[in-house]
Amino acid sequence: MKELWKLLKNGNKPSLLAAVVNTIIAFLKGAGFLFTGNVALFAETMHSFGDAANQYFVYVGSALSKKAPTPRFPNGFGRIVNLVCLFAVVIVGIMAYETIIEGWHHIVHPAVSGGFWITFSILLAATLLEFTVLYKAGKEILHDAGVEGGPLAPVTKGFKNLKYARPATKLVFMEDTVATAGGLLALVAVVLAKFFGLGWTEGVASILIGGMMFYVVGIIFLENARGAIGETDEEMLAHIANLLSDDEDVRDLQKVEVIKEGEVLHVEIIVEVDPTLSFAEVDDIRDRLLDVVCSQKNVADVTISFDEDDGIRTFTRPGKSTQPGKPQI
Questions:
Q1: Helical ranges in the chain per DSSP H
Q2: Comparing C-alpha atoms, which of 103, 99, 96, 100 is closest to residue 193?
Q3: By C-alpha distance, which of 175, 187, 65 is closest to 123?
Q4: b or e along 215-227 (b: 16 or more beta carbons within 10 Å of the residue's beta carbon)?
Q5: Which long-range contacts (CB under 8 A, 24 or more apart) does 132-137 make?
Q6: What is the number of other CB atoms lying within 10 angstroms of the CB of residue 265?
Q7: How many CB atoms are closer than 10 A to CB 81?
Q8: What are the phi and psi torsion angles at 272 (to 5°)?
C-alpha cells in the first residue's frame, strides 16, 4: 500500500485535476437535471461522468506506469496507461450512446423543461470550470513542448503542439476541449428553447454532444491501441539517428529502433564502426553515444550494439530534424 501511494503521488496531475473537477460538475448537472428535467443537462451530466471516469483511470494508469521494472517485467509498466485508457473509452462510449438516444427521444417527443435560470447557471459554471481545466492542460502541453507564449497561448498554441504532449495530458486536453464546446452548445440550446420556443434544439444539442464524445472515443482508442501494441516514435527515431550520425566514429547505423510505451521510450541501436578500433576505443564510443541518447526526453533505456563497417550504406540522412520538444514556432 505504501508503494501504491508513492506511485500515485507521481501520477499525471492534469488528469487528477480534471477528474475531480468533472466529478463536481457531473453532480451539479445531475442535480440540475433532477430539478428541471432539462435534456441538455442530462447530456452534459453523462459527458462529465464519462470524462471523470476516464480521467481517474488515466491518473491511476499514469501512476502505475512509472513502477520500476521487475525481474518478471523487465521492460517496465509503461503500457499500463494505454491499457486503462482502452478500458476507460468503453465507459465513455456507453455514455455517448445514451446521450444520443436521449437526444433523439427529446426531438421526437419534445417536453418543456423548467428552471431555466438553474439550468443556465449550472451550464455556465460548468463550462467555465471545464475551460479552466482545458487551460491548465494547455499549459502542460506547452511545457512538454518547450514553448512559451502569452496568456492565450495554452489554448491557441495548445492545439498546434498537441503531438508533443504526454499521452495523459493530451487526453485531458482533448476531452475538455469537447466538454467546453459541449457546454457552450448546451447553453445555446436552452436559450433557444426558452426564448424562441425551439425545444427540439435541446435534443439536437444532446446528439451533437454525444457525437463529439464518440469522436474522442475513436481518437483515444486508436492512439492507446497503438501504444499498447508498442508504436515506433518516428520523429524521435529520425532525431536520434541524426544525432548519432554526427559522431565522427560512427560509420553507419545498421539499426535504430525507438518504441514508445506510455510516456517512455525504449531505444535499441546497432552501430557500425571501423573494425580496426580497439575494444577500449569502442567502449569510449559506446559511453559517448549512450550519453547523447539518454539525454533525450522520455528515454527510459538504451541498448547499443556494435558491428564492423561492411561498406554498405544502411542509414541515409534525410536532413537534420527539429529537436522533439522544441518545435519551430
A1: 2-9, 13-36, 39-64, 80-108, 116-145, 153-156, 167-196, 200-229, 234-245, 279-294
A2: 103
A3: 187
A4: ebbeebbebbeeb
A5: 132/21, 133/14, 133/17, 133/18, 133/21, 133/22, 133/172, 133/176, 133/179, 134/173, 134/176, 134/177, 134/179, 134/180, 136/14, 136/17, 137/14, 137/18, 137/169, 137/172, 137/173, 137/176
A6: 24
A7: 33
A8: -95, 130
305 Ramachandran zone, left/alpha/beta (phi>0; psi -120 to 50): beta
Distances (CA, A) of 37 to 47, 100, 111, 161, 324: 16, 16, 9, 40, 49
pLDDT digits (tens, 9 = 90+) for 179-194: 888 889 888 988 888 8
Q: What is the rounded CA–CA span in Å between residue 190 and residue 206?
A: 11
Question: What digits encode the pLDDT tens for the residues 268-282?
Answer: 999 999 999 999 999
Nearest to 265 by CA among 310, 309, 235: 235
- Strands of the sheet containing 252-261, edge to edge, are 231-232, 252-261, 264-273, 299-308
Residue found by looking up cell 487551460 in the block: 135
Q: Are strands 299-308 and 264-273 parallel, antiparallel or unpaired?
A: parallel
Neighbour count for residue 39 (Cβ, 10 Å) = 27
In this prediction, residue 325 carries a pLDDT of: 41
Q: How many CB atoms lie within 10 A of CB 231?
A: 16
Write down the pTM of the prediction: 0.69
What would the grid cell of residue 6 be?
A: 508513492
Q: How would you label 178-203 residue by residue, b for 16+ Cβ within 10 Å and e otherwise?
A: bbbbbbbbbbebbbbbbeeeebbbbb
| Count of C-beta atoms within a 10 Å radius of residue 36 | 20
The C-alpha atoms of residue 252 and residue 273 are separated, in whole angstroms, by: 7
Asked whether the beta carbons of 205 and 186 are under 8 A apart, the reply is yes
* Contact indicator for 271, 240 with CB cutoff of 8 Å: no
Q: Which residues contact 93 (CB under 8 A, 6 or more apart)?
A: 213, 214, 217
Length of the chain in terms of residues written: 329
